[in-house]
């Protein structure tokens, strides 16, 4: 399967009369987009803000971040099963508005939503401070149940991203990247000498603000399965979760999965990247056993020598992680796992809830319990009072001057377990 | 800025007094630097100066641990140092133990910044890595130059009270305290490189060695449950509606203790969960699903249990540090024991 | 009483009763109130049994 990504480099987003992309700038007709998103009867009101790198802006509570993309050629559309009809994606040509994102915010759904600071110390910990963000603030109709609220905002974000992506359909790309994964048979014949490697991606699937969708399927209802890596780049996997903001994989992360990128970088040279095994992190023990059995079985079936396993979230998913690692190692397949840590504010506690000797190669995204002071910002987009109750905040997090003292876990993407960042711990 | 006063602790061998045959050499203080102190002085390049050197034989130190520590400490103190460097001891076991003992005693008893240096497999490293910063060195004195280059800037940083970074940045042997820092490469790239090393049998270093967990002896069984007072404790975050004590949704800093006298059923009007790590909808509808008060009341009435304890204890076990959980458990356990509770049912989510 | 038995084993619990699911260890929203209570009763009976059983090592009361 072969996919061409055409990157259109975006320098700015502005509101305008006509929605378009011109000379690296996205212009948005607010009314048009607002009308589109307001079609959902569960959404009472929608408003938009723009947050650019370096601006003194704080966004919270953030639900998802989504990169605008559009299929130019090849089967299907972006976010199949969610925004486009179900069809296998990952081939042909996809255009990307690189450097831009849609950020969904608005009334808090649960505890798990996050903070994005566009400047200051908090900005160093989130990759989204480097993007030109269209913030979509969705307020639900009164009395809307949590699950329906989450869904309404999730779909609004995807719709907005698809709307922006569509503006890039006929624009010339500034750069083109090509990714190709051969079939198993072709791969073996083409690279007989190279170690065969797969990527096992664990997806958070534990209910409200903990779900992930694959081709529109709630992944908790699926068994472990296989994707071509390029399917991810066309939005086959969509986030419906926030877990703790620091280690949720936003839809942006799925589209730009760094493990996929870095395995491709060595593909055909130092290794043969065979594919992605996606598995879930369910709330029933039997599911955890079954899904990890299947990860190991599929890794064996692919005939790989090694896998990278990435986690999403923490706590009980540490068990899924260890099960995957242990069972795959037991097949004689080498593993490296990517996780993050909850070692306490002083860093002195055990970092994981589960452990096994076979997990001898670990990459960490850092200690999410670390305290950080976020100075006041000129502008807050969303609801500042959420700072006291979101995961990582505490009573008194929000100071009278508008500054916030919180754990790193409130910052969207801070300790990402796909290895998206440079942050680590020892 | 004034030059910092440094004191150097070394053994008989590095003081060129002799080898094994002189290992019973008693503590001795000399003005200025001796042996490897010269290299340290040079590397200090004016920011600090070794004003005195304390020398002790390795056998003497280890065989007379308490007395030798006292003597060495007194000598170090007499130089009024701002900073103490012990060793480096490389892979010399008794020297490593001596350096670790001296450096940690200086830190603890004199309150003066102190460091040492060792090879990672030196038994002194394992014994003292949690007490003092131990800069990792090669396994023999051939690594002196590198050791000095690593130890000096770190020692100056420590003496200046600057923030100490992660072990991987600073070069000290990991001491169990996890410190965040920015790596040069992103995590996914490090993972790919680690996997390639593992596949080809090349050495690699895990960024997080698997932890060891505590074990406790099981308590004896409850003799007669029908006469026992049973308490409920949960990490599922069940709190009276409105979360009156503001227990955090993640990384709890506290627990709640709530009176359930006369409560026979937890309803959506009275209880909810404060936990931010699971879908709260089901617990909010009926908190008995996490904290089974209703059935325990039934058991109480039937005489199946003696009594349900008047209070239940609750916290959120979501991203909460083991150290915090341990501290909560110690307090809760003490109170429960004092209140005559015979057994606890602990529910977790 | 916990759902993720492997974690309880790893962290060193001595008497372990496996439960239904993480968000509802002692219930199941898919059932009626009475059926749920029945599950809860059975699980708590197991817990009482565990408390009154002598153990010398970590034990899971299935």
By DSSP, the count of extended strands of chain A is 26
**Tally of helical runs of chain B:** 11
Strand arrangement within the widest β-sheet of chain B reads 2-3-1-4-5-6
Level of helix content of chain A?
10-25%
Number of domains of chain B: 2
Strand order of the largest sheet of chain A: 17-19-14-20-21-22
Task: Report the sheet-strand fraction of chain A.
Answer: 25-35%
Looking at the structure, the CATH topology of the largest domain in chain B is Rossmann fold
| Subunit arrangement of the protein | heterotrimer
The DSSP helix count of chain A reads: 8
Measured as a percent range, the helix fraction of chain B is: 25-40%
The end-to-end span of chain B amounts to 57 Å
How far apart the termini of chain A lie comes to 39 Å
What structural class do you assign from the helix and strand content of chain A? alpha/beta
Tell me the radius of gyration of chain B: 28 Å
Structural class by helix and strand composition of chain B = alpha/beta
Describe it for me?
The complex is a heterotrimer of chains A (426), B (349) and C (62). Chain A has 8 helices and 26 strands. With 426 residues, chain A is an alpha/beta fold. In chain A, the strands form 7 sheets. In chain A, strands 17-19-14-20-21-22 form a 6-stranded mixed beta sheet, sandwiched between helices. In chain A, strands 8-9-1-13 form a 4-stranded mixed beta sheet. In chain A, strands 5-12-10-7 form a 4-stranded mixed beta sheet. In chain A, helix 7 packs parallel to helix 8. Chain B has 2 domains: 167 residues, Response regulator (Rossmann fold), CATH 3.40.50.2300; 123 residues, no CATH class. In chain B, 34% of the residues lie in helices and 18% in strands. Chain B has a 6-stranded mixed beta sheet with strand order 2-3-1-4-5-6, sandwiched between helices. In chain B, strands 8, 10, 12, 13 and 14 form a 5-stranded mixed beta sheet that branches. Chain B has a two-stranded antiparallel ribbon with strand order 9-11. The radius of gyration of chain B is 28 Å and the shape is elongated. The mean pLDDT of chain B is 95. Chain C is mainly α. Chain C has one domain. In chain C, strands 1-2 form a two-stranded parallel sheet. In chain C, helix 2 links the parallel strand 1 and strand 2. The longest helix of chain C has 19 residues. The model of chain C has no long low-confidence stretch (mean pLDDT 95). Chains in contact: A-B, A-C, B-C. The interface between A and B is large, with 85 and 57 residues.
């Amino acid at each position: 399967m072969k996919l061409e990504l055409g990157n259109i480099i975006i320098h700015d987003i502005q509101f305008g009369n006509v929605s378009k992309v011109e000379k690296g700038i996205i212009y948005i007709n607010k009314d048009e987009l607002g009308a589109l998103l307001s079609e959902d009867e569960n959404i009472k009101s929608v408003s938009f803000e723009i947050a650019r790198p370096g601006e003194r802006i704080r966004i919270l509570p953030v639900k998802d971040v989504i990169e605008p993309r559009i299929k130019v050629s090849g089967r299907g559309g972006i976010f199949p099963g969610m925004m486009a009809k179900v069809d296998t994606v990952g081939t042909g040509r996809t255009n990307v508005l690189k450097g831009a994102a849609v950020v969904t915010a608005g009334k808090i759904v649960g505890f798990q939503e996050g903070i994005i600071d566009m400047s200051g110390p908090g900005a160093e910990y989130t990759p989204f401070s480097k993007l030109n963000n269209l913030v979509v603030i969705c307020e639900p109709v009164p009395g809307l149940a949590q699950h329906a609220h989450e869904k309404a905002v999730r779909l609004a974000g995807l719709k907005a991203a698809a709307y922006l992506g569509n503006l890039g359909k006929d624009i010339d790309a500034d750069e083109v990247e090509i990714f190709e994964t051969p079939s198993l048979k072709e791969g073996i014949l083409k690279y007989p000498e190279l170690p065969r490697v797969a990527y096992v991606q664990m997806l958070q699937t534990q209910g409200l603000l903990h779900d992930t969708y694959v081709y529109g399927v709630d992944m908790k209802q699926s068994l472990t399965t296989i994707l071509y890596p390029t399917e991810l780049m066309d939005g086959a996997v969509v986030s419906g979760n926030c877990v703790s903001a620091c280690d949720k994989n936003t839809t942006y992360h799925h589209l730009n999965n760094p493990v996929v990128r870095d395995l491709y970088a060595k593909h055909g040279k130092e290794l043969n990247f065979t594919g992605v095994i996606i598995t879930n992190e369910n709330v029933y023990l039997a599911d955890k056993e079954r899904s990890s059995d299947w990860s190991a079985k599929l890794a064996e079936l692919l005939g790989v020598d090694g896998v990278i396993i990435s986690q999403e979230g923490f706590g009980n998913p540490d068990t899924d992680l260890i099960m995957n690692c242990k069972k795959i190692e037991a097949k004689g397949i080498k593993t490296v796992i990517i996780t993050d840590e909850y070692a306490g504010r002083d860093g002195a506690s055990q970092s994981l809830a589960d452990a096994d000797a076979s997990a001898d190669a670990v990459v960490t995204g850092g200690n999410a319990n670390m305290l950080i002071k976020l100075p006041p910002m000129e502008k807050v987009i969303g609801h500042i009072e959420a700072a006291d109750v979101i995961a990582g905040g505490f009573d008194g997090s929000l100071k009278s001057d508008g500054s916030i003292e919180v754990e790193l876990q409130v910052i969207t993407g801070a300790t990402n377990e796909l290895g998206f960042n440079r942050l680590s711990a020892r | 800025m004034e030059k910092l006063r440094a004191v150097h602790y070394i053994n008989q061998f590095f003081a060129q007094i002799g080898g094994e045959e002189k290992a019973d050499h008693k503590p001795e203080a000399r003005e200025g630097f001796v042996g490897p102190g010269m290299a340290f002085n040079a590397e200090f390049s004016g920011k600090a100066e070794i004003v005195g050197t304390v020398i002790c034989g390795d056998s003497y130190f280890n065989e007379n641990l308490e007395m030798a520590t006292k003597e060495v400490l007194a000598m170090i103190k007499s130089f009024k140092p701002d900073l103490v460097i012990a060793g480096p001891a490389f892979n010399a076991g008794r020297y490593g133990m001596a350096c670790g003992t001296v450096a940690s005693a200086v830190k603890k008893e004199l309150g003066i910044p102190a460091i040492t240096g060792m090879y990672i497999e030196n038994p002194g490293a394992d014994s003292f890595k949690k007490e003092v910063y131990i800069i990792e060195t090669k396994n023999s004195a051939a690594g002196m130059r590198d050791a000095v280059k690593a130890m000096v800037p770190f020692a100056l940083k420590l003496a200046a009270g600057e923030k100490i970074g992660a072990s991987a940045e600073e070069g000290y042997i990991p001491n169990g305290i996890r410190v965040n820092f920015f790596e040069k490469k992103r995590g996914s790239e490090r993972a790919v490189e680690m996997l390639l090393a593992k596949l080809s049998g090349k050495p690699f270093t895990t960024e997080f060695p698997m932890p060891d967990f505590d074990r406790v002896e099981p308590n004896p069984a409850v003799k007669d449950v029908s006469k026992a007072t049973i308490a409920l404790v949960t990490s599922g975050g069940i709190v009276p509606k409105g979360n009156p004590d503001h227990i955090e949704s993640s990384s709890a800093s506290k627990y709640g203790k709530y009176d359930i006298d006369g409560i026979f059923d937890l309803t959506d009007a009275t209880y909810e969960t404060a936990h931010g790590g699971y879908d709260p909808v089901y617990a909010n509808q009926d908190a008995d699903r996490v904290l089974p008060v209703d059935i325990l009341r039934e058991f109480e009435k039937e005489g199946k249990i003696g009594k349900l304890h008047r209070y239940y204890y609750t916290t959120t076990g979501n991203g909460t540090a083991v150290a915090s959980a341990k501290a909560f458990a110690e307090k809760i356990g003490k109170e429960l024991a004092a209140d005559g509770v015979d057994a606890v049912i602990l529910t977790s989510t | 009483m916990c759902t993720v038995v492997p974690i309880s084993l790893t962290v060193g619990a001595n008497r372990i009763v496996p439960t239904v699911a993480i968000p509802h260890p002692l219930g199941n929203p898919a059932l009626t109130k009475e059926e749920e209570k029945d599950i809860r009763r059975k699980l708590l009976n197991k817990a009482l049994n565990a408390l009154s059983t002598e153990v010398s090592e970590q034990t899971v009361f299935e």
